[in-house]
Amino acid sequence: MSGEGISLEELGLAARNHGLPFEALDWDVTPPGLHFLLIHYDIPQVDPTAWNLTIDGAVANSGSIGLDVLRDMPRHTRIVTLECAGNGRALLAPRPVSQPWLLNAVGTAEWTGAPLASLLEHARPDTEAVEVLFTGLDRGVEGGTEQAYQRSLPLPDALTGEVFVAYEMNGAPLPPQHGAPARLVVPGWYGMAHVKWLSSITVLTEPFDGYQQRRAYRFREHADDPGRPVTRMLPRSLVRPPGIPDFLSRSRVVDAGRLALTGRAWSGHDTITGVEVSTDGGETWGDAAVEPAPDRYAWQRWRLEWDAAPGNHVICSRATDDTGRTQPLHPGWNVGGYEVNAVHRVQVEVR
Amino acid sequence: MSGEGISLEELGLAARNHGLPFEALDWDVTPPGLHFLLIHYDIPQVDPTAWNLTIDGAVANSGSIGLDVLRDMPRHTRIVTLECAGNGRALLAPRPVSQPWLLNAVGTAEWTGAPLASLLEHARPDTEAVEVLFTGLDRGVEGGTEQAYQRSLPLPDALTGEVFVAYEMNGAPLPPQHGAPARLVVPGWYGMAHVKWLSSITVLTEPFDGYQQRRAYRFREHADDPGRPVTRMLPRSLVRPPGIPDFLSRSRVVDAGRLALTGRAWSGHDTITGVEVSTDGGETWGDAAVEPAPDRYAWQRWRLEWDAAPGNHVICSRATDDTGRTQPLHPGWNVGGYEVNAVHRVQVEVR
């Protein structure tokens, strides 16, 4: 099989960066502790009473606010599906060496916070402002460069009204591993934009050229390709594996007869317009029923009845969004292993 | 390095069975979502209002109780460190093919529930009773055998007063992935005994010979060795990696000077009597200060001041308990990869 031979270093990343077990696709909102995690450095332990968020750079009103000020602002609550840009990376051959995600790097949570646009309006960016930089409290070395985790957004994306600084997840204060006491949520974008343990928001008059912007999270076809930035999530769907699992292989055993195949689909570009499902590994396809999204950037449940006949089957699903983007049957390679949204395949033995 | 070449099947298990990030050793009680998870089959979604716990087999009073009855019994709260019996397996060569744990399969939680002894006393086991079998609601195929997850305890171990049926973790109802609505907690024993999604307790007059008792979770030196059952946790200690990490290798960068090395140590057999720490990969050792355990079966914090001089170092820790059991410097091989409690080694560059 392609992609074998994962190293102990990659395994070490897999052990600390949690994935969503596929049966957790059953929940509309992912139970805390089952949402995916990608933590570049260490989880910082932050005292929420001592924490401050600095807003500075090219603004008329720079300053610093505590958690109480953030919580006193109008509450903004959204159900958001969040996926790592590297989801699917471990299916590539040759495999880019980084966090070796199969297809578990996703989760859906209800986040509550304060709109970024309100914070920026109060700070009054200069007319020369082009980007907003977000800095986390997590610090480490990556690609030989010591850094705090930092990512920027173009100013128009920061001002849409969709982006917010979240302090609650599923109705409770953020858990440490999800950025406590406050993190950025950028609905529709891959996870790298949702800066955790947020410590400062800095308005820039030049584009940010830090490691996570210029070297990581760029879609490059070859080593010399300057590439383009990774931004919004491509359409993806996952199959809730039917029946019961084999412990080791995770292949499934299903009793013959009629059953409902289900799963989830999402896209950061636009609404899902269709999910096709195959039970023969992609030879033939049927249209699943797709439920409306509970929120604009939340995953949608799909469902298709299946008359399962004895034998071996491969269940696949393929989502298409309203921009016409769809999932490829096989993963397309790129240097960093980003945006690998090929269809999910689940081995099933019907008996 | 030994143990390279992890397969995609093993990686799939690593993606769904979460490990403790080592920096989470900072917390006395592990934040929810960072405690290790080993889920043999799928996480069942259980309606707590419809759930019942059956107590049957060789008893005078068989019956079935709901969650309300369990919650009305005297509350039993304990802080318990829980470790998977396979922790360290991926460090073996050749590597037993199963969940490929490095050293992250641990966590400490505050569990609340009802004593098993009270339940059994009410049921009145027959005089011929020898074991108590615990059955979970999780179902799958393992080693070619379809099964619900089942494990037994010898009757004397079930009646010590230490074992309990937990319905709360860290002061909240159990999360689905930790066995909601109720699970067994067997303080001091490896994780396989702590049956999740508990559905029945059956008193037996013959030893249980199901898969998880007779085939899995036995310490075998070679394939034909009948082996012995894996029971209580051997002493283990872990190092809280100092400084900041490299994203990929997780090796550490530390500023030269005086700093405190810290970590945790535990044993299911007896209290930890000493933790030795080495900063030169095990050539020389110093005695760490060990704090008392917050509870009989909870991990203990250790601490040692270190004058870090520039250069490369390997930090190790070695725990000994009051039975005289200690950690080996190098892992000892066995067929299933159980009880691999060799010392933890952390690569550090002091600059």
Commentary on this structure:
- The structure is a homodimer of 351-residue chains.
- The first copy, chain A, is 9% helix and 37% strand.
- Chain A is mainly beta.
- Chain A folds into two domains: 8-229, Sulfite Oxidase, Chain A, domain 2 (Alpha-Beta Complex), CATH 3.90.420.10; 236-350, Immunoglobulin-like (Sandwich).
- In chain A, the strands form five sheets. The first copy, chain A, has a six-stranded mixed beta sheet, with no helix packed on it.
- In chain A, a hairpin with a 2-residue loop joins strand 5 and strand 6.
- The longest helix of chain A is centred in the N-terminal third of the chain and has 9 residues, at 8-16.
What are the key terms here?
five-stranded mixed sheet; Immunoglobulin-like; homodimer; Sulfite Oxidase, Chain A, domain 2; mainly beta
Short structural summary:
The structure is a homodimer of 351-residue chains. With 351 residues, chain A is mainly beta.
The interface involving the most residues is between: A-B, 60 and 59 residues
Q: Strand percentage of chain A, roughly?
A: 35-45%
Shape of chain A: globular
* CATH class category of the largest domain in chain A: Alpha Beta
Number of strands of chain A: 22
- CATH architecture of the largest domain in chain A, by name, is Alpha-Beta Complex
Rounded to the nearest angstrom, the radius of gyration of chain A is 21 Å
By CATH, the superfamily of the largest domain in chain A comes out as: Oxidoreductase, molybdopterin-binding domain
Strand order across the biggest sheet of chain A?
14-15-22-21-17-18
Tell me the distance between the termini of chain A: 26 Å
Quaternary form = homodimer
What are the low-pLDDT stretches of chain A, counting only 5+ consecutive residues below 50?
Answer: none
- Mind summarizing the main beta sheet of chain A? 6 strands, mixed
Count of helix runs of chain A: 5
Calculate the mean pLDDT score of chain A and round it. 97
Structural class assignment of chain A: mainly beta
The CATH topology of the largest domain in chain A: Sulfite Oxidase, Chain A, domain 2
Helix content of chain A: under 10%
